[in-house]
Design a protein that fits this description.
Oligomer: single chain
Distance between the termini: 80 Å
Helix content: 55-70%
Number of helices: 22
Strand content: 5-15%
């Protein structure tokens, strides 16, 4: 039998709010979400185009056009030819985030620049995430802790970078969090009918999450473990059983690509995300791995999560252990942070891009860090209760200690936050010394564009690393790179970009007029290293004494 919440005399006052959300908390959550969207919109112009975004922007337009075709000519849209024509592009990944972002892009077009319009949908999802983050924390530990958790999340440099992109990693993290948040906020509803209704709702929401990105699948083991360890009730078990039964069907129903040859295409998708995915090596302690050792996600987390937030998350775990009781949230948050990391220890995934694949862990780590910092602030107030000035000074000092190190580093690296490393490893210089990847995802290409636009002869050829030509083709489409320039590509490669093949040319590094080399160690082939050793760059992108990218001009 569950005991009522009891507030111990020496427990921080914020615990009084446990289990209760006032109307004002909902208004605060709305304000937090809106402020998040504004901050991301103000900073998005500086965040450069990344490797995955070009194909997703093409998919946005293709899927959205199909939706309007469905309205105007449903029989054509729903035919196999109609679905194949619109949904073949980027069918390697589920469609829902791209469809949602495509609709937002159409609504935002003209109000913001074109690249921002492609990213606007995901920026709105991050606003939703911070609002839900606040609500989950405020219910259990009060408003101060909720605000601190949101600040903790947005002060994680790598998460902040990903939060701007028209990619699937942060939307997948949002979907993962939404499912777990729904299960948490409905946990107190008892009885067979409420459990039945909540189970159906969870199944629908989980299916929507799966149709955004497969990472949402990790929500099920998180909730099962939470039930077994902290919420042992038949009603919770019924909800999870219904969620498991309904979610996959919602997933299939939301993906028109699966309407024909369903089993064949579904099997191909499952194989793609497990064993057939094209291999992306991971540079790890001076070696290229595929897959990296089992400990990679845990080591990488320590290296890219700000050290102060990591320590505060550990403090939050200690506080949660002291406050433990049935269904108390710390256990759920700890499992939510752990499962995305554990999932990468199996060695089954063939793609690794540093922290990108365990992005769903970051919101839960922010919750734990918020709990830890809130507890320390309450402790400072208790110790200095008779000295108001001292209490305020100590509180400010604690806040500065928590958030200043990563903020200062971010300012020094900006906008290249994918090169952020924590104080634990000595920042970017320390990480490169021990053999960690300097940068990745092509976000350093943009600095070379102004020089090439000014100096290149008509029809000059620009080379970038294999399979990244779509980034430069997209810059051309966005009007940021001269359209007369030709983009080098490898043999037998295509492009989903409009006119991409016409604007590209099969050429190697030695046949090109300009060569952009990002210092992504896992992509530096022997040929690239030889070329770099034999040529002098005309432009370098450098941060904290470390070279992130180089532009070479062959006359």
């Amino acid at each position: 039998m569950n005991t009522p919440d009891v507030v111990a005399p020496n427990r921080p006052r914020s615990i009084v709010h446990a289990g209760h959300l006032a109307l004002s908390d909902r208004f605060i959550a709305l304000a937090i979400g809106l402020c998040t969207v504004v901050v991301l919109l103000l900073t998005v112009p500086q965040i450069r185009l990344t490797w995955d975004e070009p194909v997703y922007t093409v998919a946005q337009e293709s899927y959205t056009n199909w939706l309007f075709q469905l309205r105007d000519a449903p029989s054509v849209a729903l035919s196999k030819a109609g679905i194949d024509a619109s949904w073949d592009v980027n069918h390697e990944h589920p469609p829902l985030d791209k469809l949602f972002s495509g609709l937002i892009q159409r609504a935002a077009q003209g109000s913001v620049d074109q690249l921002t319009s492609y990213r606007f949908g995901n920026i709105l999802l991050v606003g939703l995430l911070t609002a839900l983050l606040y609500l989950m924390m405020a219910e259990s530990y009060g408003r101060q802790a909720g605000i601190l958790a949101v600040i903790a999340l947005l002060s994680m440099p790598r998460f902040f970078f990903h939060a701007h992109l028209a990619a699937l990693d942060v939307p997948g993290a949002v979907a993962f969090f939404v499912v777990i948040s729904l299960a948490w906020h409905t946990r107190k509803l008892r009885g067979p009918w409420p459990s039945l209704a909540i189970g159906v709702l969870l199944g629908i929401v989980w299916g929507i999450g799966l149709a955004i990105k497969i990472n949402a699948a990790f929500a099920l083991p998180v909730l099962v473990l939470w039930m077994l360890l902290f919420a042992r009730r038949w009603g919770i078990a019924l909800r999870l059983a219904l969620m498991t039964a309904i979610g996959p069907w919602v997933f299939i129903g939301l993906w028109p690509w699966l309407y024909y040859d369903t089993w064949k295409r579904l099997t191909a998708y499952i194989r793609f995300i497990t064993v057939d995915h094209w291999k992306i090596d991971q540079w790890y302690f001076g070696e290229s791995f595929m897959p990296p050792p089992w400990h990679f996600p845990f080591v990488m987390l320590v290296f890219v999560l700000p050290t102060t937030l990591l320590l505060l998350a550990l403090v939050g775990l200690v506080r949660g252990w002291r406050d433990r009781r049935p269904e108390w949230p710390i256990g759920l948050w700890a499992i939510g942070a752990l499962i995305p990391l554990v999932a990468l220890t199996s060695g089954q995934s063939m793609v690794y891009d540093n922290e990108r694949l365990f992005m769903p862990a970051f919101p839960f780590l922010a919750l734990l860090a918020g709990v830890g910092l809130d507890w320390l602030l309450h402790g400072v107030r208790r110790i200095t209760t008779r000295h108001t000035y001292l209490a305020k000074t100590a509180g400010i000092a604690l806040m500065v200690t928590a958030f200043a190190p990563q903020t200062i580093q971010s300012a020094m690296l900006y906008p290249h936050l994918l090169s952020y490393y924590s104080e634990t490893v000595g920042g970017l210089p320390g990480a490169t010394r021990i053999g960690m990847e300097t940068t990745y995802w092509c976000e350093t290409y943009a600095e070379s564009i102004d020089y090439v636009n000014q100096h290149a002869r008509p029809g000059a050829i620009i080379w970038t690393e294999d399979w990244s030509h779509d980034v430069l083709l997209t810059y051309q489409q966005l009007g940021r790179l001269r359209v007369d320039l030709r983009i080098a590509r490898v043999p037998n490669s295509g492009s989903p970009m409009r006119g991409g093949i016409a604007r590209s040319i099969v050429a190697d590094i030695w046949e090109s007029d300009y060569v952009i080399i990002a210092n992504r160690e896992s992509g530096l082939t022997d040929e690239v290293l030889r070329f770099r050793s034999e040529h002098t760059p005309v432009l370098q992108v450098e941060r904290q004494g470390v070279i992130l990218a180089q532009l070479f001009e062959r006359k």
